[in-house]
């Protein structure tokens, strides 16, 4: 598969993931194209949740939807609270934070050289 076709498939995936997350109450989602500066993946998706329960609910929703859509979730990592969950989908890494943890880790600043991908308005319901 060519790199451009692969990246187009990843783009479809990132918009689905954002849509699913927002449907479970994700706040202020952003997508960063980190393909030029990271060998880990093509995209980071970062969003917030109001509390730890919601962080887990968003993760569970994404896991369920990925399973139905046959999207591989290679690894899930979380802290004890959980205030943060990372979901590795090979070409996409999805971060769910409670707001305080998102501010603390400030991934948007760490990856400030990454290109922000515009999320269509219909996908970005809750901010």
Characterize the overall form: globular
At the first level of CATH, what is the class?
Alpha Beta
Oligomer: single chain
- Proportion of helical residues: 25-40%
Going by CATH, the homologous superfamily would be Beta Polymerase, domain 2
Rg for CA atoms: 13 Å
Give me the secondary-structure category: alpha+beta
User: How are the strands of the largest sheet arranged?
Assistant: 3-4-5-2-1-6
Number of helices: 4
Whole-number count of domains: 1
How can the largest sheet be summarized? Answer: 6 strands, mixed
Describe the structure concisely for a colleague:
Helices cover 39% and strands 26% of the residues.
Structural write-up:
The protein has 127 residues and is an alpha+beta fold. It has a single domain, classed as Beta Polymerase, domain 2 (2-Layer Sandwich), CATH 3.30.460. 39% of the residues lie in helices and 26% in strands. The chain has helices at 3-23, 52-69, 99-105, 107-110; strands at residues 27-33, 43-49, 75-78, 84-88, 92-98, 115-117. The protein has a 6-stranded mixed sheet. α1 (3-23) packs across α2. The longest helix is centred in the N-terminal third of the chain and has 21 residues, at 3-23. The mean pLDDT is 88.
